[in-house]
Amino acid sequence: MTKQYKVGIYCRLSVDDASNSAKAKHYIPSEESVSIENQYEILSKFAMLNGWIEVKTYRDDGYSGGNFQRPGFLEMLEDARHGLINLILVKDLSRLGRDFVEVGRYTDVVFPSLGCRFVSVLDCLDSEGDNTDMLHFRSLMNDYHLKDLSSKIRSVLHAKKKSGQYVAAYAPYGYRKSEEDKHRLVLDEEAAAVVREIYQMRYSGMAYGKIAATLNGRGILPPSWHWAVHYGKGSCNRSKLWAYATVKCLLNDDVYLGTLTQNCTGSRSYKDKTMIHKPESEWISHENAHEAIIQPELWEAVQKINQAAKQRADGRTPPQPALFTGKLVCADCGHPMVVSRQSLHRKNGTVKRYVSYFCSRFATTGHSTCSWHRVSEITLKNIVLSEIRAHGKAVAIDEAAVLDRLKQQIQSANTSRQEDCQQEISRLRRRLEELERMTAKLYEDKVSGAISEASFALLIEKNEQERVEKAERLDTLLAGERKSQQDIANIQRWAGTVRQYLDLQDLNRDIVEELIDHIEIGERTVIDGQKHQDIKIYYRFVGLV
């Protein structure tokens, strides 16, 4: 019996390809690239002529061939893992990618391990044919093309930097790109006024956090939101608050002196996009490249204040991770809690040290958002110790009862739906089998002439659309079942771990890492003269017990 191939058509268009396409010349609507559309038409006809079932099309418009973290490509791999497709079809090998090593890994290792045949139409390459010898040679040439293109782009950008042109995507806060020349910075008067005020506040002795709090209190938008409102889409996914780090960065940037400094960072190579800091000898700097916002005298005075603050910080002993570092979150805003260390000098000459934690958002916004949520380490340590010992004792006395209670806790929200899910899974499996038989029958009817080509195309599209929807729903239900089974296994694992700490006398970092996922810290309140603070401990494997 001839193997039935379920085809995933993959189309890709890079930014450079797009610049030469009809899309860039406005011959067609901007939302669809002509190159992508042409790729699809060629591949769809090729699949039909070979009698293959076209299941799904994956498109990556505007993605480089050197980057394999593309949404369409990753979706295609995921579908191949679930058996939704078993043949990957591309117009030519460069559409799959231009990295010789990665392309070879996918064609030689990944696709075969997924049971996927790979076909490149214009290259006449087929992983199940006898013409694969040229595959690696073609891939190497595509890789060379990518390297050559990267080198040319780097050269052009470096020449622009050397000539004093601004090449970054966004203008620094306080400036905007000139409408006449996008490589030149001009003042954004509204933001420039804020920059001048920030420097004056720092000159008067205000700390970074206090400056941030003042700006937040007056409702002044931070740089990302200022750009989005004035030059972007009107909103962004960043915080709408000024933070300590934002103010500090702005107060140390020499762009406000009129100096343009570029080439400070760059990627390791055309294959590795990780950004690295370059040595100062490679920086490209131009003085008086644009109008200054801050006068040199004020700039120098502020830098002396910044340097003095840095020296005070450098003189302190680097803090070691505290007992609960990275485990505490604010119950109200969800931000992590940070550690605070204080020293109390007694009259007898001894020093008592205190460790506590407070909301990081409250700290970085200059106390303008959220609240302290402060908790002392010794108090929290005693609470966690008592709870761990209590759970260990309960497991030792009656492990079965504890396990049953936790299972009921996990399943309580799903109990009423479990039977319905099982029935739906059975129905979906039967329907998917029916759809596969219907698909095979449609192809037989088309070949025998029982139905027209137009009717076949209409029916097969409707059939495949339903099949994809049913398959996705089935995957979701099965994933839910697997999670429920894993939750049960996790409960037993947690019980086995916590039993070891029945007689725990002290808490250390290793035990915290082993047992605790995170702890939510609420704000302190006073009720009837008594202090209250809601603290919820979420354990690894089981969550809140």
Short structural summary:
It contains 17 helices and 20 strands. It is an alpha+beta fold. The strands form seven sheets. The chain has a five-stranded mixed beta sheet with strand order 2-1-3-4-5, with helices on both faces. Strands 12-16-19-20 form a four-stranded mixed beta sheet.
Task: Specify the helix fraction band.
Answer: 40-55%
- Residue share in β-strands: 15-25%
Gap from first CA to last CA:
56 Å
Structural class: alpha+beta
What's the number of helices? 17
Assembly context of the chains: single chain
Residue stretches low in confidence (pLDDT < 50, at least 5 long) are 18-34
Task: Identify the notable features of this structure and list them briefly.
545 residues; alpha+beta; four-stranded mixed β-sheet; 17 helices; 48% helix; flat
